[in-house]
C-alpha cells in the first residue's frame, strides 16, 4: 500500500539544540498533518499544511510542505524538556491519512 | 465537554478470550477509526468507518471485528484469532468534510494485556 517514510526514528539532543524530522511520500499528497504524542499519551494534532511550498510556524516549531507536495519537515528550534515525545506526520490521500512511523525526540540528561 | 472517550484505560484478559474495547464520541463526527500501537512503533490502522452501518478493513484487520450501529459509538472486539493482541489501542474520529483527509481527534487509548 501507500507509505509515508519518516526519518529519523529517534533523535537525541541536548536541551537547547535543534531537532528536525522529515517525511517523504512516493505519491503526491492532498495535505500533510503533524501530530505529537507525549510519553504514555495519545497523538494530538499540531498543524495541517495544504499548499505547495507552504511554511507555517508555531512559536519554536516550523513546518514545511514541499513544492511537489511529496515531502514535509518539522523543525524545532532550541528544544525544551516540554518538547519530549514522538512526532508523527500523516499524509492525506483521498479520505485517508497515511501515517509515518514517527520520530522520537529524546533530551539527553 | 466534547471529546472521545475510551474505556477502560487498562485491560487484562486471559489468552483465548474475546474482549471488546469501547469508543464513544460526542463531536458529531461521521468518521471513526481504530489504530494499534506497539511499543516504540507508529500507528497501524485496524478498521475505519465513514458512516453509520458501514466500515472497512484497514491494514491489520485480521483477528479484529467492529460495529457501527450508532454515530457516537465504534466498539472494537479483539478476538481469540488475533495472535498477538497485547498493545495500545487508539480510537479516533474526524468530521469527514468530503474533501481531503481531515484532522483526527484521538481518545486516551486502552492498554490491553493478554496474559
If you had to describe this structure to a student in words, what would you say it looks like?
The complex is a heterodimer of chains A (109) and B (115). Chain A is mainly β. Helix content of chain A is 0%, strand content 56%. Chain A contains no helices and eleven strands. Chain A has strands at 4-7, 10-13, 19-25, 31-37, 44-49, 55-58, 61-65, 71-76, 85-93, 96-99, 103-107. In chain A, the strands form two sheets. In chain A, strands 2, 4, 5, 9, 10 and 11 form a six-stranded mixed beta sheet that branches. A five-stranded antiparallel beta sheet of chain A has the order 1-3-8-7-6, with no helix packed on it. Chain B has 115 residues and is mostly beta strands. Chain B has strands spanning 4-7, 10-13, 19-25, 31-37, 43-51, 54-57, 64-66, 76-78, 87-94, 105-106, 110-114. Chain B is globular and about 40 Å long. Chains A and B meet through strand 5, strand 9 and strand 10 of A and strand 5 and strand 10 of B.
Q: How many individual helices of chain B?
A: 0
Output the radius of gyration of chain B: 13 Å
Largest interface, counted with CB-CB under 8 A? A-B, 26 and 23 residues
Q: Helical region count of chain A?
A: 0
- Principal-axes shape call of chain B: globular
Q: Main sheet of chain A?
A: 6 strands, mixed
Separation of the first and last Cα atoms of chain B: 35 Å
Keywords:
heterodimer; A: 109 residues; mainly beta; 6-stranded mixed beta sheet; globular; B: 115 residues; 4-stranded antiparallel beta sheet; 11 strands
What is the secondary structure topology, with strand pairs?
The complex is a heterodimer of chains A (109) and B (115).
Chain A: E1 4-7, E2 10-13, E3 19-25, E4 31-37, E5 44-49, E6 55-58, E7 61-65, E8 71-76, E9 85-93, E10 96-99, E11 103-107
Chain B: E1 4-7, E2 10-13, E3 19-25, E4 31-37, E5 43-51, E6 54-57, E7 64-66, E8 76-78, E9 87-94, E10 105-106, E11 110-114
Parallel strand pairs in B: 2-11
Antiparallel strand pairs in B: 1-3, 3-8, 4-5, 4-9, 5-6, 7-8, 9-10, 9-11
Amino acid at each position: 500500500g501507500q507509505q509515508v517514510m519518516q526519518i529519523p526514528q529517534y533523535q537525541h539532543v541536548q536541551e537547547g539544540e535543534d531537532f528536525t524530522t522529515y517525511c517523504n511520500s512516493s505519491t503526491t499528497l492532498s495535505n500533510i498533518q503533524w501530530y505529537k504524542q507525549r510519553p504514555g499519551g495519545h497523538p494530538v494534532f499540531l498543524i495541517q499544511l495544504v499548499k505547495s511550498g507552504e511554511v507555517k510556524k508555531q512559536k519554536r516549531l516550523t513546518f514545511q510542505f514541499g513544492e511537489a507536495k511529496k515531502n514535509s519537515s518539522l523543525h524545532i528550534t532550541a528544544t525544551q524538556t516540554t518538547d519530549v515525545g514522538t512526532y508523527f506526520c500523516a499524509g492525506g490521500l483521498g479520505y485517508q491519512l497515511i501515517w509515518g512511523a514517527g520520530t522520537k525526540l529524546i533530551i539527553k540528561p | 465537554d466534547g471529546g472521545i472517550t475510551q474505556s477502560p484505560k487498562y485491560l487484562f484478559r486471559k489468552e483465548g478470550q474475546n474482549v471488546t474495547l469501547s469508543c464513544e464520541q460526542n463531536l458529531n463526527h461521521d468518521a471513526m477509526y481504530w489504530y494499534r500501537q506497539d511499543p516504540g512503533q507508529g500507528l497501524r490502522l485496524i478498521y475505519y468507518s465513514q458512516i453509520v452501518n458501514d466500515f472497512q478493513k484497514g491494514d491489520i484487520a485480521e483477528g479484529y471485528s467492529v460495529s457501527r450501529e450508532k454515530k457516537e459509538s465504534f466498539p472494537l472486539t479483539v478476538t481469540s484469532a488475533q495472535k498477538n493482541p497485547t498493545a495500545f489501542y487508539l480510537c479516533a474520529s474526524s468530521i469527514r468534510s468530503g474533501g481531503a483527509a481531515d484532522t483526527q481527534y484521538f481518545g486516551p487509548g486502552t492498554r490491553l494485556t493478554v496474559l
